[in-house]
User: Fold these one by one.
Assistant:
Number 1:
Amino acid sequence: MSELITIPARHGKAVRLASRQSIRIVNTHGNQVVDTWAFSAADLREFMSMEHARAYIDRIRPKVGDPIASNQRRPILTLTEDTSPGVHDTLIAACDIWRYKGLGCAEYHRNCADNLREALAELDLVPPECPSPLNLWMNIPVVNNDGIQWLPPVSKPGDYVVLRAEMDCIVAMSACPQDMIPINGFNPVEAHFIVT
Amino acid sequence: MSELITIPARHGKAVRLASRQSIRIVNTHGNQVVDTWAFSAADLREFMSMEHARAYIDRIRPKVGDPIASNQRRPILTLTEDTSPGVHDTLIAACDIWRYKGLGCAEYHRNCADNLREALAELDLVPPECPSPLNLWMNIPVVNNDGIQWLPPVSKPGDYVVLRAEMDCIVAMSACPQDMIPINGFNPVEAHFIVT
């Protein structure tokens, strides 16, 4: 596969990667957060896990060259390229129906947790749970070793990351539909990816 | 229930709390990390979730007065008292067989993930997954908004926290058996709790 594929605004997409294939995920408009998950193709119960990944690299966000660990503490992806300033998030759960309810939504609001489920359903798969995602470009600084802030991305249009598969896996991505706080600049848009 | 119960060194314990009951968890010797989980009694698939809790309080560790959110973004526990300096961790996964394998253990090493499963099994329950725990007294500072360190607890013998149940729930605790890095001062010991 070598064509640029759209992750439609507020929706998710998933794709299978063979070990050593890479995926380039493009922040087409610069302001978009892309929640990202990876599941082992051999057993979906092994997946990229932020709480294991942080312990594996001794940092709260991966940088170029870092393996990203699964919940069985082995690399499932490696971050091999990043043209953006490297501001990504591992601390915050995917948005979900309860998040929007808490923000005052009376009606259904699209959300990343459902986008994960929809994206995997397109591949006839069901995620075993909604793991805490790698939130590409989500700008959540930790202040004074404790407080967190919710800021717009610092990336520019066309910035991309490349993630290399360290095992056969399924990568799922959600163009985050959050439009009630500034993490997408109040303007959720599409993003793109290409498998190489 | 109002007796002091031992969490044996390197093992786990679980207890049922009715809504508005509290549990006091005591760091008897001061150097011990206690991994802590909470599951809704009505549906174990709702549980205390660090990635949702951080978003709920806009901080990476709870302080006295803070509700601690479930994966359905409602308070499941509230931290109502803390005699220690408040250094707890929400960033790091429970230790598991793969952690010790990575540290060079050829044989089975007791671990917090299995302690959770054993503790719930004593109540004839099976956890739906091993959520990222609230690691009481685990000293994992974030340095320069990115790096993390692994340090011994700063608590003193007899320090305790009190957690109030905001719904009927099961609280599970593990006296962390980690003895290969300094987070328990290389000396895993027992801790205690009492339900009030």
Number 2:
Amino acid sequence: MRPPLDLAVDVVTLTEHLVDIESVSRNEQAIADAVEQSLQGVGHLTVTRHGNTVVARTDLGRGERVVIAGHLDTVPLNDNLPSRREGDLLHGLGTCDMKAGDAVILKIAATVPQPNRDVTFILYEAEEIDTAFNGLNLLSQSNPELLVGDFAILMEPSNGVVEAGCQGTLRAEVRTTGSRAHSARSWMGDNAIHKVAAVLARLDGYQARTPDIDGLTYHEGLNAVFVSGGVAGNVIPDECLVEVNFRYAPDRSEEEAESFVTDFFDGYDVRVTDNAPGARPGLDVPAAKAFVEAIGGEPNPKFGWTDVARFTSLGVPAVNYGPGDPLLAHRQDEHVPIAQIEDCERVLRAWLGGV
Amino acid sequence: MRPPLDLAVDVVTLTEHLVDIESVSRNEQAIADAVEQSLQGVGHLTVTRHGNTVVARTDLGRGERVVIAGHLDTVPLNDNLPSRREGDLLHGLGTCDMKAGDAVILKIAATVPQPNRDVTFILYEAEEIDTAFNGLNLLSQSNPELLVGDFAILMEPSNGVVEAGCQGTLRAEVRTTGSRAHSARSWMGDNAIHKVAAVLARLDGYQARTPDIDGLTYHEGLNAVFVSGGVAGNVIPDECLVEVNFRYAPDRSEEEAESFVTDFFDGYDVRVTDNAPGARPGLDVPAAKAFVEAIGGEPNPKFGWTDVARFTSLGVPAVNYGPGDPLLAHRQDEHVPIAQIEDCERVLRAWLGGV
């Protein structure tokens, strides 16, 4: 039996304990059990369990409710467990993305019994994989009332500053066709792979837009992420497929993003396979504005798609704010500066009126 | 039990019987058994078995020996068995490549007891797959004396005219590299797929050489046959691979072909993975010249690599000569004109001095 999670330890030790409970996506039962059990021991919280997602709420009748959320899963193991302290850093799978953030959530949940606004703490499963498994997505369907709030904070790694909004992401397939022939008589066929030269040259010449939105500068990107073609070593191929990923600033709608890509590849067979809209920073919303002011520092734009966009689509203004460098997420050598974990805990505690 | 193969039937019926014994590469036992058994009944032949390759020889002390060979295997089934006659055509898997040729070999073997030159008939396994399984290749290692001759005829489909020589074939990998990044921050990476644009553009601009060799016009070809790249849907790829196939005329050596490809892709990481030389037509060799004169008609160059090159490398002048259109080989709708089978049998019988 694993010893129960002790919320009385300091936030860095708690991060270590969370990291050392392996929780690759679809294997979150142990960590969700530990989190649930530890929160059940906190008198001022109402705790519910939904699959491997745990929700803990205060209900103090405050005029405002904030949702503070973190995912419990990690990307696959890469010979980077257990956790390991080295100087000012904590190393290991999930230290950055995002068990340091989860530890901050659990510490605040356990030790701020009278927050100045009601809080819904959510520790959820399966953020790193298909949205069909995403704990927040499932909760929005089964218990939408639990996601209601005036403001939401996702404690994804953001270097301890507010990252606002997020870019949209669209995937599309661009296909070229030709006709097969034996490669010994190649002139009788029409090589579909050769035709991809022009598709890739177009991509290579793409100029990224960097729009300013609500004071933040976004940066788009259009890239081939896969290419595949070929029938056999002695056959002129009749089809080639390029899969592209368009990351677009949140001033474009899904439809506008789709039009852009379709126009960009004018003359080719283009099929959009996936499209998730971004979220405008929304820093003009009073709750967000107040949070940014309380935290201090300059907010940054968020480039990667996060569940911020899910909250935005539910009508809840949301930002990312958490310890760790987002560029280290999903890397074999991911780590988090110990001071950032402690800073985040302190800042959040102060904002909620804790001591 | 399958009834024994009857060599007394006409050559077209015999082709049907051979086609109806399914013999996809590596599954030639049944057809080799039937062929061996039928030839054992022919008094003037010495029959030996080597794996699923059957060899039958006359030994009349003639001044000249000719090897006449055909492979027994076919490419995979494609809903094209059993055989089916329709008007002047015989349809089905292997009708063209090359059981019509095999039927001619068997009829000649059985019914020309006193050929004017000694003959080694070879019906062999696994021509359609990796050369490591090729029955002629295996025989050249285990019993090289059985391949000795003054001249060889491969009864591969050639529309009933002599096809001479064959082109070489070289495979190479051309690789581009870059550096990975999350596609949400694509500008921090270096997209290896985009770099393939220039590789494919170079291929698209390739101008084929069509040299004249010993009076026959060859036609080279340089093509991408596979392209692959990509790590994940949200990752800028750091590597992309283009596999090319160079079919080269027999006036280039293996080394010259390799130099050509390396120079063509100057500036890229090129690795040659396979290289099989071609064979010059060799129609100036007396035995070949005499055969062409006896057959009549204008000889054609052979574009595809065949076992003609293997005989050439063993010092045995060789040509392709058989019923069926080589362009129909490996096609779902392969078929052979009935008249071409009968013509080939008649021509070969006459050349061997049969009645």
